[in-house]
Amino acid sequence: MIRGAVFVVTLAVLPLLGLPHWVLNMLVFVLMFAALASAWNLVGGLTGYPSLGHAAFFGIGAYAFALLLHRQTEITDGWQPFAWLPAIGVGTALIGVPIAAIAMRTRADVFAIVTITLLFVVQTLAFNLHGLTGGAQGLSFPVAPFPADTFERPFYYVLLGLLVLAMLLTFGTLRSKVGLALATVRGDEDKARGLGIPVGGAKVLAFAVSVGLTAMVGAVWAYYQVGIIYPQFAVDPLVTIAMVLMVFLGGRGTLWGPVLGAFVLETGQQYLAYELGASQFYLIAYAMIFLLIMLFLPRGVLPSLAGRLR
Amino acid sequence: MHALVQGLILGVLTGGVYALMASGQTLVFGIMKVVNLAQGALVVLGAYLSYQLFVSYGIDPFLAIPVTAVVMFALGVGVHLAVLRPLRREDRAELSLLVTFAVALLIEGVIGVVWNTTRRSINTSYANDSWTVAGYQITVVRFAAFALSAAALGLLILLLHRTRFGRAVRATVQNPESARLLGVRAERVAALGFGLGAATAAAAGSVYGLLYPFNAGSHYDLISLLLSIVVLGGLGSIGGAIAGAMIISVSSAVVASTISPSWAPMTFFVLLLAVLLVRPQGLFGRPA
Fold first, then answer.
1. Chain B contact set for A134 (CB, 8 A)
2. Cβ count within 10 A of residue A195
3. Given CA atoms A178, A179, A182, A183 in this order, what sign does their dihedral have?
4. DSSP state of B120
5. Which has the closest alpha carbon to B105: A237, A262, A102, A70?
6. Any idea what DSSP says for residue B212?
7. Cα–Cα distance, B22 to B242 (Å, whole number)
8. What is the 3-state secondary structure (H, E, C) of A174-204?
9. Which of B21, B30, B13, B20 is nearest to B172 (CA)?
10. Among A211, A206, A224, A207, which Cα is nearest to A65's?
11. Which of A269, A272, A207, A274 is nearest to A238 (CA)?
12. Where are the beta strands (DSSP E) in chain B?
């Protein structure tokens, strides 16, 4: 509890220290991925069902947000669009329910396949449905009217809020009956069902909450994109990969693992992108890091450390 | 009506090519219970290899297949030894998804470095030839692609049913533990199986390169398609992969020709969910 409070207060104070814009911009993305990874952890970490389709829900949130603002000519109060976030989150969670209900009837690997298929279907639709999404030309909306000096701040605080929400949900789940039910899903689902534990409801609920959070982060991301979003960035397989990788690096099913993973990987990623540009070498470096983590740290940093201390 | 039949013809011909791509995918799953997310990237790599042989030496993509298949077989065995074999058995199923995804990204990156990211296509002298049969257009390339895919699938099935290696593979698919007890060397079968999957990707890649323009990112278009096919047909079943490929290809082609090409990708996702709803193990799969 104290650890959490210190963490949040430190992060809340950071933007007031007059840091340069590039640092603040980087911190916005670190917080964004910390929130995304924590959201993914609710399904992938707690239930052991590895979703590879979360970027689809990120994109759905981004497009929902852009569509809501698309018809306006300008935004008078910059904070006002954030009021849409709860509606976007709940709406996307409801979309997630039937998909989870069908995909989670099967084994974890089929679930992964269904979710990754969803990702590419949503991406293709974002390109193809010109009338709705503007296709490859992107979808435009008014720019947020925040002063240039402190432009990052509102996004930073909203993302911090979403991260805290995701962590509180994880914390609450880990200590609740739902959390216990999810732990049994990860352990031995068939046995758990045999004992009468309501595994079906628990894992569908976890998925819905997780994708709802992801969509809200997607909406904030869209708003931060200064007036236009493109399908290849709104529905990007690398976003899914980043979420999964951060959780695996930090430690699956832990409260702090995804946050740690996001802080390490996102700063590393920004550094790589800066050094190598958005080139193919960047992709190769990223894939190599990915492979190394999976081969040498499959259990994650925090569980490995805990295992060593015991 | 004309559009519908034309869509059907196109769907069947393309379905043969998808069946070949998906057979490698489902074979690897059957042997190792590994979902190989790099299969699409391997197909695209196969397309680039035959593109290079065509551009540099004028070798026809159909004739290039024996060369690319051998190279990709070796690559497949190498990938298995380097990144799949070290995974611990208990979390292999889950980690292999992510590891093969990383391999796909790595292949995409390497392709981007070697051939940069502009779209390529293989323009043979017969690329634009077509026959007209009873008012329906059939392009020569598509027909040849179908015939070659059918032949390659036939070879694969012969290999699985008429050789010692094939028998070991089928035994491993049915029951890995009993196969091991009977003296099947599981790791060797797995490595060779992964190589075989990559070799089918090489053959399918040559054909894919003839049919469509491609770039480093093309594997993203393929992977969801291939995965839908193998889940629809039942993971691990080659017959299922063929049936799944035909169903998905024909229905997408019909939707594209009668409703709108924009919605065609949605077709296979809806089909996939519908099949999972009534038969979670897929059409030809055995219950887990």
1. none
2. 10
3. negative
4. B
5. A237
6. S
7. 8
8. HHCHHHHHHHHHHHHHHHHHHCCCCHHHHHH
9. B30
10. A224
11. A269
12. 130-133, 136-139
Angle (nearest 5°) at CA A264 between A261 and A269: 110
Closest Cβ–Cβ partner in A112, A125, A244 for B266: A125
Of the CA atoms within 13 Å of residue A225, those in its CB half-sphere come to 22
Q: Residues B181-220: pLDDT tens digits? A: 888 888 888 889 899 999 999 999 999 998 888 988 888 8
> Which residues does residue B131 pair with via DSSP β-bridges, in sequence order?
B138
**Model pLDDT, residue A92:** 94
pLDDT of residue A70: 83
Give me the residue from B98, B110, B261 closest to A244, CB to CB.
B98
User: Is B288 a residue whose pLDDT tops 60?
Assistant: no
Chain A neighbors of B102, CB-CB under 8 A: 287, 290-291, 294
Phi, psi (5° rounding) for residue B214? -145, 155
The helix/strand/coil state of A77 is: coil
Mean pLDDT by 10 residues, chain A (310 residues): 83 83 90 95 88 93 91 82 91 92 80 86 85 82 84 90 93 83 76 76 90 94 88 86 88 89 87 74 83 81 73
List the structure tokens of B104: 């796909």
**What kind of architecture, by CATH, is found in domain A2-304?**
Orthogonal Bundle (1.10)
User: Cα distance from B203 to chain A (closest Cα, Å)?
Assistant: 24
Residue with tokens 């497949």, as numbered in its chain: B76
Cβ distance A283 to B116 under 8 Å? no
